[in-house]
């Protein structure tokens, strides 16, 4: 109860939109360098996309934070440093910690029997076993390598505290945090979430892009917690997003909110 009160207080304090990172200067900012092609390219600048997502949230219930890392590595969003319970989203960190532990060997059938259900269908028993195998030290090691600043692992792993900024940074490099020998396997798991759980960011993928993602959801204080983070990739272009929601009327409502934010943030992405 004290934790829920603390989270609610933090959300209340940060209800005002946080400052956005400045968009890096481009040729479109100079009349001498601007061309028709340049204007077309920047028809949907990132700052405009993020502003549209913020405006969309004015009409949604619950408390929502989101963050996006664009192709140039610039981080933007809303309430990006507010901590939310992770629910099953932390399983993506357990995956990387486990594969790091196995960096000097191939994966066995037993390894795959744990990791595959934990990620593709969000099996909780498998997640608990993986967490017990890797231990908190390796999970925090993943957080440090991903430059997370507000990550707090809890004994009940579904209560682990995360932020949208940390998650967006993490998913921007999630496959690159995995030992090279296991990288393709990690990507295949994050791309193979079962159909029943392919909502939110998975329903907002721009044409020609691929998505690697994980989600979390559970009741919290009589309402619903819904979280999701993903990496969008097209060739060498990479964009990551994290949307965290709490106090949602239902899981379906939270899923729709995540889908709406993602569509606004990725608007015009080609």
Strand order of the largest sheet: 2-1-7-6-5
The proportion of residues forming helix, as a percent range, comes to 25-40%
* Fraction of residues in β-strands: 15-25%
Structural class: alpha+beta
Average pLDDT over all residues: 88
H/E element order: HHHEEEHHHEHHEEEH
How many angstroms separate the termini? 45 Å
Gyration radius, rounded: 18 Å
**Total beta strand runs:** 7
Residue windows where pLDDT falls under 50 for at least 5 positions? 1-6, 8-39
What gross morphology would you assign?
Answer: globular
Biggest sheet layout? 5 strands, antiparallel
Output the number of helix runs: 9
How does this structure look, described?
- With 270 residues, the chain is an alpha+beta fold.
- The protein is 40% helix and 19% strand.
- The strands form two sheets. A five-stranded antiparallel β-sheet has the order 2-1-7-6-5. It has a two-stranded antiparallel sheet with strand order 3-4.
- It starts with a helix and ends in a 5-residue tail after the last helix.
